[in-house]
Amino acid sequence: ALERTFSIIKPDAVAKNVIGAIYNRFESAGLRIVASKMVHLSKEQAEGFYAEHSERPFFGALVSFMTSGPVMVQVLEGENAVLKNREIMGATNPAEALAGTLRADYAASIDENACHGSDAPESAAREIAYFFTAEEVCPRTR
Ligand code: CMP
């Protein structure tokens, strides 16, 4: 099915200057970027986005990392976009990520793991709405 998913290029990957390289992975896999912007998250924005992890031991480190520099946030559209993006990213822990995935190529650790992608269509809808208004998402007309 035609789906949308939400993606973040995290501060470590932005610092490595691989935004374009990562966008190329999305486009080469048939995903279209239908919304995109650079943001430097506030503590409140990061805490709100990751609220489901607020009781986890890594929450403080996660919020600190995600506010350490700018990120790129984007909406990707395509057939099975949620699963396809997760395949492009590889496992959360780069030590477990398959060769050729974003995490294998660009991530240093499970904490600084280059990218985020929604885990299901329902979370994608929530995460897209957290960062983008309906008008900011631009499906292709040609
Ligand atoms: P992300 O998909 O952005 O969602 C939450 C993030 O927490 C995750 O990627 C990891 O970067 C980070 N994290 C750190 N430790 C863990 C862990 N043990 N399990 C899951 N996520 C973790």
UniProtKB/TrEMBL annotation:
It is an enzyme of class 2 (transferase). Keywords: ATP-binding, Cytoplasm, Kinase, Magnesium, Metal-binding, Nucleotide metabolism, Nucleotide-binding, Phosphoprotein, Transferase. Its EC number is 2.7.4.6. It is found in: Cytoplasm. The active site is at 116 (pros-phosphohistidine intermediate). SMART domains: NDK. Residues 2-139 form the Nucleoside diphosphate kinase-like domain. ATP binds at residues 10, 58, 86, 92, 103, 113. GO terms for molecular function: nucleoside diphosphate kinase activity. Its cofactor is Mg(2+). It catalyses: a 2'-deoxyribonucleoside 5'-diphosphate + ATP = a 2'-deoxyribonucleoside 5'-triphosphate + ADP; a ribonucleoside 5'-diphosphate + ATP = a ribonucleoside 5'-triphosphate + ADP. It comes from the Bacteria. The keyword Kinase applies. Its main location: cytoplasm. NCBIfam families: PRK00668.1. Belongs to the NDK family. Homotetramer. Major role in the synthesis of nucleoside triphosphates other than ATP. The ATP gamma phosphate is transferred to the NDP beta phosphate via a ping-pong mechanism, using a phosphorylated active-site intermediate. This is Nucleoside diphosphate kinase. It comes from Psychrosphaera aquimarina.
